[in-house]
Every structure is written in structure tokens, then in C-alpha cells.
Design a protein that fits this description.
The complex is a heterodimer of chains A (344) and B (255).
Chain A (H helix, E strand, L loop, with lengths): L1 H8 L1 H17 L3 H26 L7 H18 L4 H23 L4 H21 L1 H4 L5 E2 L15 H24 L1 H11 L1 H6 L4 H27 L1 E2 L6 H14 L6 H15 L7 H15 L3 H17 L2 H4 L2 H15 L1
Antiparallel strand pairs in A: 1-2
Chain B lengths: L1 E10 L2 E11 L4 E5 L6 H9 L6 E6 L2 E2 L5 H7 L1 E4 L11 H6 L10 H6 L2 H20 L15 H14 L4 E5 L7 H16 L3 E5 L3 H7 L2 E6 L2 E6 L1 H5 L2 H8 L2 H5 L1
Parallel strand pairs in B: 3-8, 3-9, 6-7, 7-8
Antiparallel strand pairs in B: 1-2, 1-4, 4-5, 9-10
Helix pairs in contact in B: 5-6
The chains are: A mainly alpha (344), B alpha/beta (255).
């Protein structure tokens, strides 16, 4: 049991996952499956972004889908209306994500908890309205077609599914590596302190606003870049990309996988994506399967699949490593009290 | 080291802290006592910068810190603990403490992206500081344990350690002995003395009179936001005004 658990938590598991992702196009049953996987990777990047502000920093951002849409529209508008190539437009999607994220963050992060969530819900809706109504810029409800695909410079054709799959995989790995560095670093610990409590973080000398804005901007850059990739693969987008449904999809992926964990966003996105595919034939009725499943998960595994696993394993390790101490808690307190008086 | 001049905080028509002036000397244990709702925690919040005062001033080591943001005050060397001990339940004790030294580090996002030497050095520094303070509060043996699996007393000690990790000169302890048994209270009092022996000035709010009377060098009594007495434990014990605030006056009894 422990051996299996250790394996799941080991670096070897990550290598195995990567290896699986690399050979997936070879073992996939159809091109459609590869396409579904590539799209899931794109959403996973967005979920990793939300995990930074909501999972690590504890601020529930409900405009995340909106920032995803902004990234997609930046690529669409720049390539279709202004003749930009994909790659510069893709970089611009990240920059716009950062700029809008900063502007929204500086205002909205003055609010706490539910108020922040409600404010960002409104921001998300405003983004939707702008994309839908500002026809001169966004083509309105018609949407934008013929978005430029990523250029392969004559070497690779990214309009084909398999090359695009690898491109997205590359960005996903990059996204995960960066998040993993952040989460283990002093900055990640700073975010976590804010998540526990604003007051506690401030009493430890942490500048709340600066760190919350940093987390928020990081998350919107992730959303913007994911949106940019999405535009490059789907090549047709409309205002529906900013629909609040996408935000809640992203949140669901995060909750199922494990909020605030490193592998949670990936596990959650993959699980829900393929489950959705599996019950595709039920059409509208698939929510009958989905709804209860989510309810059960939230009740019994509020920390998600990965979070529950990590807590379970951590406890097991903690109770095992120093064999003596695991035995009785009463004994422990007695020793620590004695030590304290000795020290004094 | 801490000099409070005519400090007042009003919430609407209510003066939670009213015209309080007091001075706390370095290297001492200073206690603030008073009935519930006397304004003790508000007083701490003002000193720590969690809220700005309505009027009056706060000087720390000769520097005017009135209305300064709490994170700046923490960097100047004032740390605090809270009535309810907030910690990260899903992390180990040691992991909880590492962030405590963050305010003495410089690393930014760029350091994280390139995994710079500065970041690695500073993380090492924070880690060793965490181990030091854990040892200081006598909990080295449970560093690997999850917070969720620790006792109330251990949590209090972890909260002390977290405050210590910021390298403070002055520590504000809000009801450190709340919710723990008499024997543990003794041990915590010993730990507070140990902090003072290491050159830290302590200021604490507490309801447990036995602990206060044996521990404090100086006591300030607040009632309805006003300072009604100040002095050594001996003086406070025999002060008729204090006795009246706590027990009610003889006239009240007769009426």
C-alpha cells in the first residue's frame, strides 16, 4: 500500500506521466481523441493559473474565464484584423492578460472573500458584454473566423492535430514547472500565509496588496496564454468563450483535482474531460451522472483527489517516521512540557 | 521602547480605546488586563497597525509608527500572536514556520523563475531560522507533524515560534494561555520568561490572574477603553479602583 502511495508521490510518477503524454498520439484510438487531449491541456494551463490566485493565495477569482477569452480575442483580433503572425500575437495575449489582470487586481483585491468573488463575477460578465457588444473591435456576436495558426516556420505544420498536440504539451509542462517552482519558493509560502489569514500574513510583515496582485497577475497571464493557444487551435471564437460557464468549468476541474495542490489541476482537468467524453452519448442527461458524482466528491473529498491523497499519505508518514513518537500523544506533550521547563 | 501618547480609537460613538498613555520599558514583561470588552485587543491592533487610531500617537524605539501599515511595523520589529491560533492545518509544523522569516528576505518573482542563488540562500536562511525558533519553543521533536495533529498547547507554541521567526524586539501576545490547562499555562509562562531572557520585550493580554501576577513586571488595567491603573502586580492587587472594576463596588452590592 505504502509502496504504491510512495510511487504516486515520487518524481518517477511525473516522468511516467510525461512519457504517457508523449506517446499518447501513438496509442490514441483516433485523431479526435488527440484533439480532445490537446484542448484539455489548454484548459489545464488555465486551471493552473486559477490555482495560483485561488488555490495558493485563497482569493476566489470568478473572472478567470473572462481573462481566458481576452487572451483568445487578442490573438484573434491581432492576426485577423491587423495581420500579425500568431507568435507575436500569442505574446501579446500574455501581456494583455498581465495588464488587464493588474488593473482589475489593483481595484478588486481591495475587497475580501465573498465581496472579491462577487466583484470578479461582475468583471467576468462585463468582459462578456464588451466582447459581445463592441462590434467594431470584436465583430460582436458573429465572432472571428480564420484565426492564424501557430507558424511552424516551414518545419512543422501546426494546423495538423499531432504537432499542435505536442506544442500544447510543451506549454503545459512549462506551466507546471513554473508553478511548482513558485509553490515551493518563499513566494509560494507567502501566498499560502495570505490564504490562512490576511491578518496573520500582515503580522509576519507581508505586504498583502503587493503579493495578492502578483498572484492575480500570474493567474491572468496563464489564462491569457491559454486563451491564445485556444484561439490558435480552434481558429474560430465568439463571445461565448467569456461565458461564466467556462469559469465554473475551470473551478470544477480545480476542485475535483485538488485546490492548492501541484498536480490537482492536471488530474481534475483530465478526469472531468474524459468522463465527459465517456458519457457523451447521454447528451443532456449526462448531468444526471455528473451532478451526484460532484456532490459526493465535494462531501467526501473536499480537498479533491490529489489533496486527499497527499493528506492521507502525509499523516501516514508523520505517524511512522520517528517510531517512538507515533505511539502516544499524551506522552509527547508531557515530554515537551518537561523540556520547556528544563529550557527555562 | 514603546511609548503610547493619548491613544484613542472610536468606532462610531463608542470609544474602544480612550485617551490611553503608557510607556513599556525594554526587556520587561508588560501585561494588559481588564474585563471583557475593555479594549485590550483593540489596543494591540492599534500598536500592531492593524487599524489606524482616531487620535494619539505610538512611538516605537523613538520612531513615530502611528498609522503605519502592519507589515511595515512587523519589519520594524513588532510581532504578535492572535487569540485564535491560525496556522496552516495541512502542513507540517516546520513548514508553517518557514514563512515567518520571509520579511527579512529580498527574493522576487524573477529569482523564482530562474531559481537564483539569492533565492536558494534565502530559503536556506528561512529554513534554519524556522528550526531555531522551533527548538527555542521546545518543539523540535514534532517539526515533521501536521498542524492538524497537534494539541492546543503545541499550537500556542508554534504561534510563538512564528512570531519569533520574524526577529522581533517586541512581541504582543493576545491571551496566550486561553484554552489550555493550568500545568500547560505554567510551561507557557516559563517560555515567556525565556523570551525575555533572550532580550525580547513582551506585552501580553491575559485573563489568568495567577499567571499575570507572578509573571508581569508591569500591569496596565483597562476598563471601558480607559486606563484605570498602572503599576507592579503588588500595586494593582491592592488598588481599590481595579477591585471595583472587576468585582463591582460596595455600593453596588448594597443596592
Amino acid at each position: 500500500m505504502d509502496r504504491i502511495a510512495n510511487f504516486f508521490a515520487s518524481p518517477a510518477m511525473k516522468v511516467l506521466l510525461l512519457a504517457f503524454a508523449l506517446i499518447f498520439p501513438l496509442i490514441a484510438g483516433s485523431e479526435y481523441q488527440i484533439y480532445v487531449m490537446a484542448l484539455a491541456f489548454i484548459w489545464a494551463i488555465a486551471v493552473y493559473g486559477l490555482n495560483i490566485i485561488t488555490g495558493f493565495c485563497g482569493q476566489l477569482n470568478l473572472a478567470h474565464g473572462g481573462f481566458f477569452a481576452i487572451g483568445a480575442y487578442v490573438v484573434a483580433i491581432l492576426t485577423v484584423d491587423h495581420g500579425w503572425a500568431f507568435w507575436p500575437a500569442f505574446v501579446a495575449a500574455g501581456v494583455f492578460g498581465a495588464v488587464f489582470g493588474f488593473l482589475v487586481g489593483v481595484v478588486s483585491l481591495r475587497l475580501k472573500e465573498h465581496y472579491f468573488a462577487i466583484f470578479t463575477l461582475c468583471v467576468g460578465f462585463i468582459i462578456y458584454l464588451l466582447l459581445d457588444k463592441w462590434e467594431a473591435l470584436t465583430h460582436g456576436s458573429l465572432g472571428i473566423i480564420n484565426i492564424a495558426p501557430p507558424e511552424g516556420f516551414g518545419l512543422i505544420d501546426f494546423t495538423r492535430t499531432i504537432p499542435f498536440y505536442y506544442l500544447v504539451l510543451f506549454f503545459l509542462v512549462l506551466a507546471i514547472v513554473l508553478v511548482s517552482r513558485i509553490s515551493r519558493s518563499l513566494i509560494g509560502r507567502t501566498f499560502l500565509a495570505i490564504r490562512i489569514s490576511d491578518d496573520l500574513a500582515q503580522s509576519l510583515g507581508i505586504n498583502l496588496m503587493r503579493n495578492k496582485v502578483l498572484a492575480f497577475v500570474l493567474s491572468t497571464v496563464y489564462a491569457g496564454l491559454a486563451g491564445g493557444l485556444y484561439a490558435g487551435v480552434v481558429r474560430f471564437i465568439g463571445p461565448a468563450e467569456a461565458d461564466v460557464v467556462h469559469t465554473f468549468d475551470i473551478i470544477t476541474y480545480l476542485l475535483v483535482g485538488g485546490i492548492g495542490t501541484l498536480m490537482g489541476p492536471l488530474v481534475g482537468t483530465m478526469a472531468i474531460t474524459w468522463l465527459t467524453q465517456a458519457v457523451q452519448s447521454f447528451e443532456e442527461y449526462r448531468m444526471i451522472v455528473f451532478g451526484p458524482l460532484l456532490v459526493v466528491l465535494v462531501i467526501f473529498m473536499p480537498k479533491g483527489v490529489v489533496g486527499t491523497f497527499l493528506t492521507w499519505r502525509g499523516r501516514r508518514l508523520a505517524s511512522k517516521t520517528p517510531a517512538k513518537e507515533g505511539q502516544s500523544r499524551v506522552g509527547d506533550t508531557a515530554t515537551s512540557s518537561k523540556e520547556a521547563s528544563d529550557n527555562a | 521602547m514603546l511609548k503610547i501618547n493619548n491613544l484613542t480609537k472610536r468606532f462610531g460613538g463608542l470609544a474602544a480605546v480612550n485617551d490611553v498613555s503608557v510607556e513599556f520599558a525594554a526587556g520587561q514583561i508588560n501585561a494588559i488586563i481588564g474585563p471583557n470588552g475593555a479594549g485590550k485587543t483593540t489596543f494591540f491592533n492599534l500598536v500592531a497597525g492593524a487599524m489606524p487610531p482616531s487620535s494619539g500617537s505610538i512611538e516605537f524605539n523613538g520612531m513615530d509608527v502611528t498609522g503605519m501599515a502592519p507589515d511595515r511595523i512587523a519589519r520594524l520589529g513588532i510581532a504578535r500572536t492572535f487569540q485564535t491560533t491560525k496556522l496552516f492545518e495541512q502542513s507540517t509544523v516546520l513548514d508553517n514556520l518557514i514563512v515567518g522569516h520571509r520579511l527579512r528576505t529580498q527574493s522576487r518573482l524573477w529569482d523564482v523563475i530562474i531559481n537564483s542563488k539569492r533565492l536558494r540562500d534565502e530559503e536556506q536562511k528561512c529554513r534554519s531560522r524556522a528550526a531555531e525558533v522551533l527548538d527555542f519553543v521546545g518543539l523540535s521533536h514534532i517539526g515533521h507533524r501536521y498542524i492538524a495533529d497537534t494539541t492546543q498547547e503545541e499550537r500556542k507554541r508554534v504561534a510563538f515560534a512564528l512570531a519569533m521567526a520574524t526577529d522581533p524586539e517586541l512581541v504582543l501576545l493576545d491571551e496566550p494561555a486561553g484554552g489550555i490547562n493550568p500545568e500547560e499555562t505554567e510551561n507557557l509562562a516559563a517560555l515567556i520568561r525565556k523570551m525575555v531572557d533572550h532580550g525580547i520585550t513582551v506585552c501580553l493580554i491575559e485573563h489568568k490572574m495567577d499567571m499575570i501576577m507572578s509573571l508581569a513586571d508591569k500591569i496596565m488595567v483597562l476598563d471601558h477603553g480607559e486606563k484605570i491603573a498602572e503599576g507592579t502586580p503588588e500595586q494593582i492587587k491592592n488598588d481599590p479602583v481595579v477591585i471595583e472594576a472587576y468585582l463591582g463596588s460596595e455600593e453596588d452590592v448594597e443596592a
